[in-house]
């Protein structure tokens, strides 16, 4: 099994994951986006800044008439562009990191080490950052603070991902020093400490204003489902493909050994 | 013969033997990481001062994806 095997399988898994994320986002998420935009258009969220000014045309508006990209395009082709691009990129990177993890994560066989890498990716890149900076629907969040919010989000994701890489190093060291179970516990503890400290140190973002809690909840659940669908397909497809390659390779080697023994 | 059959069911290759040398992995990782980061920034960004295509076309195009994938937006 070479780096190429993992990258190709990762890109393929990522493409499938992008499709799955699109299906979930379109069916579960888009109704919530539409409800939020309807609220915004009705002017129900008084705290929303970027449409207050008289010249709202240069900022981005979700209303149907003056938008540069229509809502119908945003919710179909636009959404698909986003989920496919992110899916392929995350799938490819997960594949490469699985290649690094191969044979380096204790005595885990290829399928298990690949599944573990995908799980760590989902937790560190999506689930934990979501807990600190959850997704917000349209009509929430000021246009003036989006640069700082984007910087905070990327900063937190960076700490989380680097934290999980450090935690794996700690786990491998502890596993060599003692054994597998204390190693796993040491790694999990290291990651928990890093993200807990980061979550306390990073500033809170609260721009919800008077946004209705029920729509916010439904939107966030749909956003989380989209992310989980993406990672579930990346993990499942990549693990299945890697396992298939591994079984074939094993069968070839067994045949060779058999032939040599004759 | 019997020995060969038993060794075909349980492989003699241990997981550690499969490890790809880091020297071999490094260039892929460097390019993969940089490429992944640039796509993430392109999808998640608001096209600020440093973006090459002027305007907010990409921002508007992937608007829904950004909201539903949890990137900051407004």
Automatic annotation (TrEMBL), chain B:
Fetch the InterPro entries from UniProt.
CbtB_put
Membrane-spanning segments? 25-43
User: Which UniProt key words apply to this protein?
Assistant: Membrane, Transmembrane, Transmembrane helix
By what name is this protein known? Answer: Unannotated protein
Keyword hit for Membrane = yes
């Amino acid at each position: 099994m070479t780096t190429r095997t993992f990258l190709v399988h990762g890109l393929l898994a990522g493409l499938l994951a992008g499709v799955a994320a699109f299906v979930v986002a379109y069916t579960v998420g888009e109704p919530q986006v539409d409800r939020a935009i309807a609220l915004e258009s009705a002017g129900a969220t008084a705290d929303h800044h970027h449409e207050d000014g008289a010249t709202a045309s240069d900022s981005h508006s979700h209303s149907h008439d003056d938008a540069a990209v229509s809502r119908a395009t945003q919710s179909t082709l636009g959404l698909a562009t986003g989920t496919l691009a992110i899916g392929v990129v995350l799938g490819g990177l997960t594949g490469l990191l699985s290649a690094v993890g191969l044979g380096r994560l204790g005595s885990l066989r290829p399928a298990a080490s690949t599944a573990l890498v995908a799980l760590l990716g989902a937790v560190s890149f999506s689930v934990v950052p979501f807990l600190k900076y959850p997704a917000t629907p349209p009509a929430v969040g000021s246009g003036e603070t989006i640069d700082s919010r984007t910087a905070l989000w990327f900063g937190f994701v960076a700490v989380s991902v680097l934290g999980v890489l450090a935690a794996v190093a700690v786990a491998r060291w502890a596993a060599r020093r003692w054994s597998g179970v204390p190693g796993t516990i040491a790694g999990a503890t290291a990651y928990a400490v890093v993200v807990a400290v980061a979550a306390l140190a990073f500033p809170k973002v609260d721009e919800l204003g008077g946004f209705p809690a029920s729509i916010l909840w439904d939107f966030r659940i749909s956003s989380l489902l989209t992310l989980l669908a993406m990672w579930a397909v990346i993990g499942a497809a990549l693990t299945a493909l890697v396992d298939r390659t591994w079984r074939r390779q094993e069968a070839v080697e067994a045949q060779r050994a058999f032939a040599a023994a004759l | 013969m019997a020995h060969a059959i038993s060794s075909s069911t349980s492989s003699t290759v241990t997981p550690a033997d499969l490890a790809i040398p880091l020297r071999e992995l490094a260039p892929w990782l460097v390019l993969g990481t940089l490429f992944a980061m640039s796509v993430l920034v392109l999808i998640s960004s608001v096209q600020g001062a440093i973006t090459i295509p002027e305007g907010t076309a990409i921002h508007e195009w992937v608007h829904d994806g950004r909201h539903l994938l949890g990137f900051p937006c407004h």
